[in-house]
Amino acid sequence: MFHALAGEPDVPPAPIPFGHAEPHGVYAGDQEPVSAEMASLMGKVAGAMVARIAADVHRYRATPPAIANTDGDSMCLITAAIAVEEGTAGKLAARPDFDRDSDEPDRGTWWGALIPDGQREAMVAEAMAQLRAQGHQDVEAPAGLQRWVRGVLRVRGREITVEVNSQQRLTRLLGLLRKVGGNPVVTSEKRIGPAQDCA
Questions:
Q1: Res. 17: pLDDT tops 60
Q2: Is 59 left (phi over 0), alpha (psi -120 to 50) or beta?
Q3: What class has domain 77-112+147-198?
Q4: CA dihedral (66, 176, 161, 139) positive or negative
């Protein structure tokens, strides 16, 4: 209810010209109305499409995405402890696709394929930007060729703890350990499926 201020006549507010105001910034199509038959056909097509779209959305939501690593394997984060024969870690480190960390001698890296130049440059630029945003201004970009990491290993006596991101990589690593005479036995294993968190 509107009340007039003191000394002013009681005048009702003017109606808002909804539907009569000039359109501003509005695009409107100007065409003849469709026939009753065409409207019926469009209604049937739209009705069928809505049901199909709703079914597709439900299916996509119910199915977790397929996540793969750089080898194309289905992603599964695996940490496994592997018992091996004495001296196996040294034989493994002698291979060109394995490298011991200079700062941590018990830690090693299992290298994969070379990263293509264009992709490497984009990855390095992004990593450097993130490091500098965190306050690491004195960090320099790595030079030369870069390779994908297939896994990280830690050696403690006759036990190797490995972190890989697929069952196929764990199987390949066990095959390499057998090849160098390590006689590997998986003593414990922990798995995380990242696709389950994306459903």
A1: no
A2: alpha
A3: alpha beta
A4: negative
